[in-house]
Design goal:
Blueprint: H1 3-19, E1 25-49, E2 53-60, H2 62-72, H3 83-106, E3 113-114, E4 118-140, E5 143-152
Antiparallel strand pairs: 1-2, 1-3, 1-4, 2-5, 4-5
Helix pairs in contact: 1-3, 2-3
Length: 153
């Protein structure tokens, strides 16, 4: 995968999260995965359309999702991953991916768009229409998050 495709995603993630209340966003590692992903917890799937296509997924376990939603909701206690917490997590995915499109436009790639976020909850498997996926591990205020980038030109 081309660095010009991954960098707008990483920049968006590290730029948007501090704007919604997070103090530290640290990249922990990068790896390559095949097109089929196994997940446990919450997985946000946002489709990317235009000259660059594919999907960006953001995943975390349920406890992390509750902590993340709590932080987004100004510290309100989140004891269940209910519809309000799910909405907060989905909106974060929407904000990050919209910023990805903005970053692509800044680098000269116009005509980008995203789908509304789809939130998958539980244990499952997702197969993307790309041969390889870049997996970036982040620590966001000590909450472990994985960002999966399956984009192609």
């Amino acid at each position: 995968m081309d660095v010009s495709i991954i960098n707008p995603v990483l920049e968006a993630f590290t730029n948007i999260l501090p704007q919604i209340g997070f103090q530290t966003v640290t990249r922990q590692g990068v790896s390559l995965a095949e097109s089929t992903l196994l997940y446990q917890g919450a997985l946000i799937n946002v489709g990317v359309l235009g000259p660059v296509q594919g999907a960006i997924l953001i995943g975390m376990d349920i406890d992390s999702a509750k902590q993340f939603a709590s932080k987004m909701m100004m510290g309100m206690e989140v004891t269940e991953f209910d519809s309000l917490a799910q909405s907060a997590i989905s909106e974060m995915g929407n904000m990050v991916c919209a910023n990805v499109c903005t970053n692509f436009v800044k680098s000269g790639t116009n005509g980008m768009d995203i789908s509304p976020p789809t939130l998958l909850i539980g244990d499952g498997q997702v197969r993307l229409a790309v041969p390889n996926i870049i997996v970036v591990d982040f620590s966001v205020d000590n909450i472990k998050i994985k960002v999966y980038v399956g984009l192609y030109k």
